[in-house]
């Protein structure tokens, strides 16, 4: 959410290139040259093509979806057909081209082979040369069409991905309830399924048409036996369909687990400090890992079913040839070498669609149905209704249908008890027809960008107003507006966060300002300054509604509204209820803030360069239960290929035998050979099939272990990383590792790795067979392989860099969604949805362009190696013609068969090898996050510590980066006393107390019961020091899970704690669900957090601003709990409220990181020049 300067991007050359350059991919040459000479970086990414722009596509889909909704006909397939159907239909029409080529190729092959079986007088060599030339021409035309068609369909699917992603984000801004896990999974997983689905279903359509043509060819060659082939194919497809039914069910369950895992991971990242302090890390790691195991187990079953479908289809091809040949024999039909090789070649042409495309397409059908259902459910979800309450209070008692007020300028104070409905009252006002208002939320919302960008929030820059806003919000001399804000403002104090949040609202020139208790996080002096300078003076001519519990601020307001139990109650300052009128907001909104000091992409990641390190492969293989297991799998793959090669060789020998019988039917030896092969061939096919099933199943179980192990390693390293890691890495970037990077690890990496193993074995087997035809083929194969390896070396630098860029440009999308959901209330009430859409579209355009560049470069590479394959075929055909007197027709047939297979297999090997390195960048990215600095947990374990709880600071210094926040602190907190820490906002109070839990390193010594905490085991320290931080962090789950997830305490103890904070009546069971989307008010959430401290009964308890945003009654409850429940504990309380300050044993006044005063509060009051006296006087007036 970083509103950056518009950087100039180079134009995509495809936009201005000519037809032939597009046809032969020559427009990619400059990019390959640049990528070969240097590592590509983000500035090298082209401008997105106009037809792929996120905004345009999102608006197009949103408009059509809204139109369908009005007619109650919401359907995602119908939506996509209406918006993209015409373009797709025109693409499909071009499939007539490969049909013609498929029909011609077997005929040309047969005629070419028959030349070598003829006596040369009836079949001149010139005619054979013509057939050979036509065969080469057909091969090249096929290569040209297939690669261009694949490029078009892949980039077309990219357009759908961009449009759907944009549409989903638009719905995120509008829906009543949104989960970050679900949103991220929809975009990274479900929407991405459309890319694979469109490619596979189009290939399936193309291959179905090719199958029909090849079936016709087989019919002309095999006659009635063709019916057997049709029966076998239909059976195979039916089995694949049945498997797809089970796959669909598994996919739905898998995606549900993925949603749950991502949601929990997001919550852990958001509350990582508390999880560390409360020692809940192991619990949440176990919880997430259990979800992960179930997720991967389901996914493994999916791929085993897919592999089963592939194995069945592969066996169908081999058995089909066997059944046809046996059928011809028993029917008494004599077949020549040309006929048998045409049948074999046609069946091998069916191998790719039946073995790979159709099973994958069937799987994609099952997967896409699940994805469509999930996306449709999301898009159809209930939009946010302005009349629905967002808390668990009754509907506000407002007599008029709408809340309509006419105010004179001034301040209206809104007060009332915790959970009364004050925040909800503001949201009702915000939803009235007010075209000019600003809103500041109770909990500060800041997004990853500079402080200046957070304040401007897309509004036009007015320097005079901007500087004045900084002044009246007490920010002018305290912060640098070029500072980049971390997630949730973690690098700022709570008071600074609150003032920046307020400044964002005040900067907008509006009629009405809705301020939701922002000042509660400030010390009394700063709060009074902001109230006077900002609310009373700067906004004096405006209508300002302020939620507050501050008695002085209430007294100085112009009118008052009291809200209790959802009912508006007015005091003697009566609220006049009339019609509300507004004027238009004249502030000009722009996406861009000019003259930014820090305009870099805040989500920019440290990107690896050069080759993927060997360590990535090593770690992955080790995660697969050891490298030796992978070698064992490879041995089984090789053994399977040996059997398959034996099948092919046996088929060639059988054809030679049939040729001898065709010429002389009385050949006894040939008849014996035929009889032997009738029995041997099916045994080899069955053996190869069984072995294929075994090695595939074993491999996927190893891949399952790798996915679980690497995720466990990443999760453990992240959770145990030092706090500095989370301050310097945005949650969006981290979450990206757990979403799409993990998706590649689960699916693409293992699938590609296994394909590479199979292709290595297959290529070796084919080369051996080709060498048995003629030794020259061995030399040609090695030369062909050398050329392909050279081409790969040229391509891989560019392809690898583009894949890294594609991954790195995806992180801002996840980060933007994360930041949006955290500040959804502010965005909606401030009516800044359009601004967020534009920013999201800008980030997606960059991601789309990087994807487009990667995909087109990959297809250019494929076209090049396919063209080399045509050259290799040309060499083979020429060699056959040169050696026509020394080579038999069966060897020519076997040679052509192996050459066609070799060009395909070597291309697949090169592609899988190349893709593997590209996909291994995800493993590299994951491992990068496993090398972060870990918390040092080692230390001394002291029994029965602490027994008293006395705390002593000696010469303590602490700072972030090079700036000290705390300087030479020296003080003592006596055991079992109540110790208050007060001071101005950003004085360092939170930093001082947090050091007791050792989140950071510091200079000096801190002792608890005379033991230096730096020497203690971190687990021991944190198990005896408990903190309630400024944020009321709740996690999705039950009430018990939020108070005591590790189940150390009984139900009675938890209910007793709930009764003490007056919350027992809100819940029926400890299993009641609460969480980040809870209906509890901010004050009630704070009381739930207080229950954690009550049940823990730690010797040292730290309460950081626990009374900041609660009413006086709730404040009394909290102080009563402090007195009654923590009598045996040393309690440190950070507070800005002085109502109960004299009840503390000692008070420390912190000023700019140093101890200004410390001692008994009554004694400190005697110093009328001291800071404590001034703070007390200010509070006392209230």
TrEMBL record:
Chief place of localization: membrane
Domain ABC transmembrane type-1: 106-357, 627-918
Transmembrane portions of the chain: 88-108, 128-146, 197-219, 225-247, 296-313, 319-344, 678-702, 766-795, 860-880, 892-910
Gene Ontology molecular function: any one: ATP binding
Keyword Transmembrane helix on entry: yes
Gene Ontology, cellular component aspect: membrane
Alphabetical keyword list: ATP-binding, Membrane, Nucleotide-binding, Transmembrane, Transmembrane helix, Transport
Name the UniProt record assigns to this protein: Multidrug resistance-associated protein lethal(2)03659
Taxonomic source organism: Zophobas morio
